[in-house]
């Protein structure tokens, strides 16, 4: 069983919010041919994409060729739109959530869906999270690493995390609006340096501030192997040790970081082993970043190439950890069949 936890999707008929609301920051999907398009932002090409990013049939063909049983679908972070007026951002989120839910319902044994919510307003974000989880039956929520420049420990986000814990909502944290943007345009450093650094700041904010101490049952997974966070964690602990006047938690950051999950998208068996040694074999989920240029091909390649993993560890990393993180096993009804189409693969495992 191979579950690709980290893949992105966008509706092919994304409305033109630039014309509708008069703000250039809205992403547009401009098709260049039947099998390709440009994601446009402020009149410039943000990213060139192929039909893999919206066509479920194309995705399934790729999955079959590359040995993937299930993809977990999540929005492209450029669509988060935390900067927008709340009513408009909610509309953008709902369009994507409905599209993802419909895709999952159409192909229940191949896809699981994550939704998106407008994090600039916690009350509205909670309402849409409620709809995603309890009406659309999505498996979790993807959020960004910051909300309009505020870290995830901002007090106004507390109630959102409280509800996510109460409802057992898995949260996938993906970098967006990265730090040091003015220093990373050259060499595509925004993707290779900015994103890992941005992810580290988000994770550090949650463990240092007391968010994870307050909500110990939060289920959080970080993209791209946690970025640089796993490797600066000892430095965070040292800071906690030498600056007692800055402490906000009972234990050092590494204590709370053990609760985090990480996808496997770091390309190197050495770093996979490091994640396992530091956080545990049950905290790493296979993820490829399909269908973008930096994706791993085939998905799970780095896990396959990591020597000295037991068969149990490979099963955990390639699929079982994702099922547990996303509560897929728990959503199978008493008759052994799934309560929602996206849970079909869980019943196939006999859980």
Brief characterization of the structure:
The chain has 351 residues and is α/β, with parallel strands linked by helices. 40% of the residues lie in helices and 16% in strands.
What does this 3D model show about the protein?
- It is built from 13 helices and 11 strands.
- The protein is of the alpha/beta class and 351 residues long.
- The longest helix is centred in the N-terminal third of the chain and has 21 residues, at 86-106.
- Helices cover 40% and strands 16% of the residues.
- The chain has helices at residues 17-21, 56-66, 86-106, 122-135, 158-166, 189-209, 211-214, 229-242, 253-257, 269-279, 301-304, 311-325, 344-348; strands spanning 3-9, 28-33, 36-41, 44-50, 70-75, 111-116, 140-144, 170-174, 219-222, 261-263, 284-285.
- It has one domain: Alpha-Beta Barrel (TIM Barrel).
- The strands form 2 sheets. It has an 8-stranded parallel beta sheet with strand order 1-5-6-7-8-9-10-11. Strands 2-3-4 form a 3-stranded antiparallel beta sheet, with no helix packed on it.
- It starts with a strand and ends with a helix.
- The model is unreliable at 331-351 (pLDDT under 50).
- The protein is globular.
